[in-house]
Specification:
Distance between the termini: 57 Å
Largest sheet: 10 strands, mixed
Helix content: 25-40%
Radius of gyration: 27 Å
Strand content: 15-25%
Oligomer: single chain
Low-confidence stretches: 685-693
Number of helices: 19
Number of strands: 27
Shape: globular
């Protein structure tokens, strides 16, 4: 049996690395708070998707009496134990380190016991004016059943005692609408800015909602539910079917109950039975039950000195004059390929590429894949403008991008109404590839293609803090194959045979395994052999097994895996030549890059695909070779060489399965890949002045 690390526990270990940023001395105080919210959001998604899926699988296995059920149940219990410890540590760091540090800088989150008399008056007035009118307490009895509790909504459970009849107890539920702000700023006191959580306001004023009764006990609680969507893709109208599923998402099967740590056992049991969850799925929280909502405090506390210093990325793309015609962009692309590395280089080059296509009268068609682009998108606006200008616009828009379904449905409707060709990819497959193709009529009526192929989404917002590579090219060896993939996605024709691009679900897996095995064969023959990969997740067992074989053949393998890694490194006789690192810094490491030494003729690929079964088998993904040797060398340096020298943001995966934060020797300054690239690609001072920074 292959030595493998549990994927869910590996995901929790990644969040431990993110949480560790809150304890590092060089992390600014407000950024520590932001990391805290990221961990909470990540854990929510783990339960909404992965744990929910495993619970369903366990139910099915137990129903059929499968021998695999006890092992899966034990795995879930171990994951729950790990999650409980992580959540407890998170609450401790927030209350004992992050909030006290913010207070020393004049940003105070005031708790109920700390409210002054004047602040209590302000809280009472605010509650009466802005909160109470939208609350609807529900007392539970035969005529008032337990109200519907939506996914991750904040609620209170309250035990009441009737003042006129001693000993008569009852229970009420109070739903806190999502429309209410979770953090409020109170009147300033000198240089100190005081904030209060909505939950603090609620608990200080709960009694006013129940005149004639006394409160014996109350607690916040939150239920996490299965949020994955299932749609019959044989439906004649996929968009309508998905819209219907979205309405049901908030009410999936409960998978976790979060409640205050001091809540009585009887109250917890009442809720546990109501939501039909097991004991290990109850999480007692020492503090707010939804730390992700503290993002509002980060947003409100606009103190630049307490955040990462602002960075203005260099203006990448062709060096054109401001008044240069749109055709100049394409002329520059004809001369050479362009490599973009975000966020160190501005995403504006991608926007400029599409804008040039919209403005150039010789451009006749634009084709683009869309997975996540955001509710407001300059790229989508440009596509709409291209339609208005009479260009043929085709968008392969993935309706099933998890948690972005509604946004993508809205864009699909707008594009279709404008007259664009909108398709939803292939039945049974998510289209996750990042491709933008522009077709331009040039001399003698010849049509020439230009393309952008990237590792990340077409979202200018996330491009400011996700690291991704993009390639702008007019090389027909690549653009012809991009065009062939688009043709397949829209026409349902037989998949084309490609020479340069790897693509899922057709050739990516076989090409990847062949490349790994080729390195193993070269090592056994005494030829140069090395594998490097920078990915977000490594969980596909066939790929892991191939890497193990290559390791034992003598191939040196360096893997930079941001999140979950199921490969167990440094195992004697299995993976003794494999090293695994994870980089966790200011930016989210998101790019996927593969390197194969190939007997001295190195092959480097930029890809949208992680090494997961879903990416290799159930998605449309693309990996493009970097053909230009200068750009290839740059990718190797920026994706691998700097990462392997990092001694500030790098963690090493040990044989035990634990991660160790790497440290420079006492005599050497720490090396940070992200800091080096930020400094290397920072915009010149004149550019900063032009942008008012």
């Amino acid at each position: 049996m292959l030595p493998l690390i549990n994927r869910e526990r590996s995901l929790l270990a990644f969040n431990e690395r993110v949480l560790a940023q809150c304890e590092l001395p060089w992390t600014p105080p407000l950024e520590k708070l932001r990391y805290m919210t990221i961990v909470s959001s990540n854990i929510d998604e783990l339960f909404e998707v992965r744990i929910a899926e495993l619970n369903q699988k366990l139910d099915a296995l137990e129903a059929e009496g499968s021998s695999a059920a006890p092992k899966l149940r034990q795995d879930l219990l171990e994951v729950a134990d790990h999650a409980h410890k992580l959540v407890a540590k998170q609450s401790h760091i927030l209350g004992e380190k992050v909030l006290p540090e913010l207070a020393t800088h004049g940003i105070v989150l005031v708790r109920d016991a700390q409210l002054t008399l004047a602040q209590r008056r302000w809280v009472a007035a605010t509650f009466k004016r802005e909160v109470a009118p939208v609350l609807t307490p529900i007392g539970l009895d035969s005529a008032h059943p337990f109200p519907t509790v939506a996914n991750k909504g904040l609620h209170y459970i309250v035990e009441l005692i009737a003042n006129r009849r001693k000993g008569e107890h009852s229970v009420a539920i109070v739903k806190v609408p999502r429309t209410l702000p979770r953090v409020l700023e109170m009147p300033r006191q000198g240089q100190t800015r005081n904030f209060v959580l909505l939950s603090t306001v609620m608990q200080s004023q709960l009694a006013t909602l129940f005149p004639g009764r006394s409160i014996a006990e109350f607690s916040q609680f939150r239920v996490t539910r299965d949020s994955d969507l299932w749609v019959d893709e044989e439906e004649t109208d996929l968009r309508r079917a998905l819209t219907g599923q979205l309405r049901r998402r908030p009410f999936g099967q409960p998978v976790r109950l979060e409640i205050n740590a001091d809540c009585s056992a009887s109250m917890v049991e009442l809720l546990r039975l109501q939501f039909k969850i097991e004991q290990h799925e109850v999480y007692r929280i020492d503090g707010p039950v939804n730390l992700a909502r503290l993002q509002a405090l980060y947003d409100l506390a606009e103190v630049p000195a307490l955040r990462f210093p602002p960075v203005s990325p260099s203006r990448s793309g062709p060096p054109l004059r401001a008044d240069a015609p749109a055709a100049a962009f394409f002329e520059a692309m004809q001369r050479e390929d362009m490599l973009l590395h975000h966020p160190y280089q501005s995403f504006d080059a991608v926007v400029d590429f599409l804008r040039a296509a919209v403005n150039d009268p010789d451009v006749i068609a634009i084709k683009q894949t869309i997975y996540r682009t955001g509710s407001k998108s300059v790229l989508m606006d440009l596509l709409l403008e291209a339609v208005r200008r009479g260009k043929e616009v085709t968008v392969v828009l993935e309706l099933k991008a998890r948690f972005d379904e509604e946004t993508n449905i809205n864009w699909a409707e707008k594009l279709e109404l404008a007259g664009a060709h909108v398709v939803y990819g292939l039945v049974g497959l998510k289209t996750h590839a990042k491709m933008l193709l522009v077709l331009r009529r040039e001399r003698a009526g010849r049509i020439r293609a230009y393309a952008h192929i990237g590792t990340g989404n077409y979202n200018p917002g996330t491009a400011r803090f996700y690291t991704d590579f993009g390639l702008l090219t007019s090389k027909s060896a690549l653009t012809d194959e991009v065009a062939a993939i688009f043709h397949h996605l829209t026409s349902l024709t037989h998949p084309p045979k490609l020479k340069h691009l790897w693509w899922s679900p057709h050739t990516m897996r076989s090409e990847l395994l062949a490349a790994i095995d080729r390195e193993a064969a070269n090592a056994r023959s005494g030829l140069p052999a090395r594998i490097m990969a920078k990915i977000n997740t490594l969980s596909d067992e066939a790929v892991i097994e191939a890497l193990y074989r290559a390791s034992e053949a003598g191939v040196k393998i360096d893997l930079i895996v941001r999140g979950a890694c199921c490969l167990a490194p440094d195992q004697p006789g299995v993976s003794s030549n494999v090293r695994v690192r994870s980089i966790v810094g200011r930016y989210l490491e998101h790019s996927r890059v593969y390197y194969f030494e190939n007997n001295g003729d190195a092959k480097v690929y930029l890809s949208s695909a992680d090494w997961m079964s879903r990416n290799l088998d159930r998605r449309v993904e693309v990996a493009t070779p970097v053909l230009d040797p200068v750009l290839r060398a740059r990718v190797v340096r920026e994706a691998f060489e700097l990462a392997l020298k990092d001694t500030r943001d790098a963690w090493e995966l040990l044989r035990s399965g634990a991660f160790k934060l790497l440290r420079a020797r006492a005599s050497e300054p720490p090396v940070s890949m992200q800091a080096i690239l930020t400094q290397q690609w920072a915009a010149p001072a004149s550019h900063l002045e032009e942008n008012g920074e």
